[in-house]
Structures are given as structure tokens and as C-alpha cells.
Amino acid sequence: MTTAPTAGRKLSFEATLENWAEGMDYCAVPVPAEITQALGTTGPVLVMARVNDSEPFQVSLFPVGGGQHYIRIKATVRQETGTRTGDLVRVRFTVLDRAAVVVPDDLMDALRAEGVVEAFQALPPGRRNFLIRKIDEAARAETRSKRIQDGVAAAHERREKLGDGPAR
After folding, report:
1. What global pTM score does this model have?
2. 161-167: long-range contacts (C-beta < 8 A, 24 or more apart)?
3. Mean pLDDT by 10 residues, the chain (168 residues)
4. Which residue intervals of the chain bear CATH 2.40.30.100?
5. What CATH number has the domain spanning 10-96?
6. Which of 21, 56, 117, 154 has an alpha carbon within 20 to 30 A of 12's alpha carbon?
């Protein structure tokens, strides 16, 4: 399976919320094999998801090998829905177009100030979207600022790798 999932496709399933990392507040839900098969890929899939009646949130279905995906459920979503490890949850999601992810204004401003907008856009879509999602998920201004700087640093590294030399 190597085809790109169709953007806009809507799927849903029910599964049990699992503690993904012992001793950490990191929970995830296994994606049923028939959903992975319907997506047509064993790679990461960017989606807009809802758990039970939560507000929509952007996340990636992440591959764990053997053709299986999991979807991480953040603590804020679990609090909003009153769910805990071991609860059966209903997950609904829409596949997003990885190329259509919007760069936040504050990140774009920082990239422009450093002259690395094109280098950021040249990052592989998965890496670029991961950086944007981490920025969007930051709860504190200090964390957001640090993650913006991580995005700028990634753009600088990409620019150097592409042979354009150091950005000024």
C-alpha cells in the first residue's frame, strides 16, 4: 500500500483508549486494520479528528509497523470528553491534504525575518506539517515561541542542505 489517501475522505471507528507510554500521560487509540486498508497507505496520515463529541483537532495517524496505525489523543481532548484509559471512544476523522496546511502568521513572520520562507516550504510535507502542528498545540506562549524557533532552525538546515548556503 503506497497510494496517497484521498483528501476529504471521512472515516470513523470505535476503539479503546490505551496508555501508550508507561508512566506518561500519552494515550492513543489503535486504528482498525480495515481503516488503514481503506486509506491505502501504511505511512502517516494527516487528519482533522473528533473523539466522541470533542471539538475537531488536527493530528496524524501514525504508523507502528505491520500495517497498523494509532491516533494520539491529547490530554485536553480527554478532559473535554471526560474519557480515560480503557474507555471505548468513537473516532471520526477527515483526511487532510498535506500540501494545504496553513503556516501560522507568527511562524511566517519569523521565517520572513530570517529569509528562509522558501527553505521551510521545501521541507518534506510530513516534517513541515509536524512542526506546524507542534506550534499549534503549544499551550504556553514560551513553548510556542521555542517551537517557532525550532521551525526556523529546520528551515535554515534545509537551506544549507539544498546548497543555498547559510541564510542571513
Report:
1. 0.68
2. 162/119, 162/122, 164/119, 167/114, 167/115, 167/116, 167/119
3. 75 94 83 92 89 91 89 92 96 87 90 95 84 83 94 94 64
4. 10-96
5. 2.40.30.100
6. 21
